[in-house]
Design a protein that fits this description.
By secondary structure, the chain is an alpha+beta fold. The chain has one domain: Crystallins (Gamma-B Crystallin, domain 1), CATH 2.60.20. It contains one helix and eight strands, in the order αββββββββ. The strands form two sheets. Strands 2-1-4-7 form a four-stranded antiparallel β-sheet, with no helix packed on it. A four-stranded antiparallel β-sheet has the order 3-8-5-6, with no helix packed on it.
């Protein structure tokens, strides 16, 4: 009986961990602390929870996703930056904005989540033999 339960427990734990990995997770405080919002699915969103709007200080992009941050609503604004997953940014102060002054800490107005394109296969070097 114990032999049968172990694989079942591991399967359940693995499935729960996979469900817990959202394409994008946001936090209000650096170091992945404070209030948290997980965003499932792809597309553009500017419907952050009220306590998250213009208050995001850390984020994590899941494997297989690419996230573009905009400083305006509806994917607009002069500023944007793309983060390729898997990547965790513990402090958005480390991501500088190109126009104007400052960084991306507390500056996100809307977000575009996309499935990342699969990586191109590595090129093979073929050496021609001399006969």
């Amino acid at each position: 009986m114990k032999t049968l339960l172990l694989p079942l427990c591991l399967t359940v734990a693995t499935n729960l961990a996979a469900q817990d990995k959202a394409p994008l997770t946001l936090w209000t405080d650096a170091g992945a602390h404070g209030h948290c919002q997980r965003i499932q699915g792809t597309g553009i969103t500017d419907r952050l929870r009220p306590l998250m709007h213009a208050q995001v200080s850390a984020l994590e992009v899941g494997e297989g996703y690419r996230v573009t941050l905009f400083n305006g609503e509806d994917g607009e604004g002069p500023e944007r930056i793309t983060v390729q997953g898997p990547r965790r940014v513990d402090d958005l102060k480390t991501l500088l904005r190109l126009h104007g002054t400052g960084n991306w800490d507390n500056a996100i107005g809307s977000i575009l989540i996309q499935a990342a394109e699969p990586a191109a296969p590595a090129a093979l070097d073929v050496l021609a033999g001399t006969n």
